[in-house]
DNA sequence: CTTTTCACAGTCGCGCGGATGGGA
DNA sequence: TCCCATCCGCGCGACTGTGAAAAG
């Protein structure tokens, strides 16, 4: 894969780091050889990370808690014994509504938790994540709480190049943002859901020679808020499970005084403050974690009782905080996928001037037209360049065809894809060994099943473009970040699986196609369909990304240009997003 | 030299107000 | 004629990455 090659240097570095820092999968659950195994991205990635069933009663929570520093970094010690813990199932969070100690920062926060895998080496920290299948009793026997990272494929795209997140004084939103689906909660029990961002490793990082390298020790004395409470907290389990939970408005800042005013507020009010920002430090690697904390209905009665809490960690959510992007690959990914950066996308319309007739005919789903997008001997004399970049395509496979794009516009395909899902148990390591880096996108490699879900029609208005609709589904999800235009809930009842011609069974599919397919898991079908119908000609057009470079240098590597194939690949994939899929644990 | 800050241009969604059309 | 609902256009604010300047 060109993309893989282009990112190999960085990836290998990242791989090493991740191996050292944030192993995400139990070693005995995945075979060696899988590139991402060391990257902490094993097959468990579609899952909540490691639900342990332990429910330690901890007389001295602090003794369990690996965060001994005031800063509450995730890594715990000199031996690198553990960094992030995949899932920490605890039951010792003081229960009086939302734990007030949270307001005091991570150090105190942590005291309320215990970690199921607090002992052992770093890999054990993630052991629980390996299966991710184990039922977790959150508020009662038999309940299974599971968390799915909705936009995981997009996260993986960034993770491949080492995700960077801009931090600014006024606060910058994350992109991709965190978006989860939760299942297995008690319908009537109230929960607080919040995200905490903790140091992922004890290093200070710098971008040198085109890759991220460690550079001294992290400053773990950083003060500031590390928690973002979901604005809808607290709420019932039914509410949280109704649809995806997005943290699109979560902002990152390097301004330590960003929440100074908030600190004057009562604790609970502070966490409900919708403009809360998380204070991070530039050039440090962080790991977001999702917390689900049960809120007793009767605070007074339960004052002496313990709250139940869970922490979910997805290694692919790791990122390095920066004040300016270092890796141009990351920049390009952000531009490609973040709708707010649309202005930086150079598409066909801006690159070339087409006559109206050229623009309007043939129709967007006409293959002939699509083939005309990049005329031979393209203007700008870019043909050689296009060819070159096609082979170098970092993000997309070059194998996709226009017919796919067209095909998916046809209703029968839509219907078929709407029910994409397979329920294939992992048969053995050999299959995994065959899986390349993203091969585990294939559901056939997952130890759990995929099931379709009823279509959702809540807004994804930021993604009118079908490609974006697919790629970023879940990014600008329905909840939190942008107003929901549909209030009806998402029934989580599983639907019968009817598997059509699905990509998971097509070994010829590129990994990115699979990526998109998986992205589709949380895509809203209706908007995507509409978008396809009203697809602008430009969506089929060449996308050339110029990078700080005079025209005289056209053709150099400084210009990243992706042809219509790639773009339509996205469109095609987006069409696959017409289905609304869910992953669920096989039991 | 590296990192951070800031102004900038571009895109988008939202909200407001005016225009329009239908019904009482 | 009046009232109400809907549609449309415009302005504003939020948000983005860029690139130069400032800071360390």
Describe the protein in words.
Helix 7 packs antiparallel against helix 19 (511-519) and helix 19 (511-519) packs across helix 21. By secondary structure, this protein is α+β, with helices and mostly antiparallel strands. The protein has helices spanning 2-6, 8-21, 61-64, 106-111, 122-125, 127-131, 152-160, 237-242, 267-272, 328-337, 348-351, 356-360, 367-371, 383-392, 402-407, 411-418, 429-434, 466-471, 511-519, 525-533, 564-576, and strands spanning 87-94, 146-149, 164-166, 172-173, 179-183, 190-208, 211-217, 227-229, 235-236, 245-246, 251-253, 277-279, 284-295, 306-313, 319-322, 449-452, 543-545, 560-562, 581-584. Helix 9 links the parallel strand 11 (251-253) and strand 12 (277-279). The protein contains 21 helices and 19 strands. The strands form five sheets. Strands 1, 3, 6, 7, 8, 9, 13, 14 and 15 form a nine-stranded mixed beta sheet that branches. A three-stranded antiparallel beta sheet has the order 2-5-10. The protein has a domain at 146-298 and 310-337: Immunoglobulin-like (Sandwich), CATH 2.60.40. It is globular and about 55 Å long. It binds a DNA duplex (24 and 24 nucleotides) through residues 166, 168-169, 172-173, 175, 206, 254, 282-283, 322-325, 331, 334-335, 338-344, 461-462, 464, 482-483, 548.
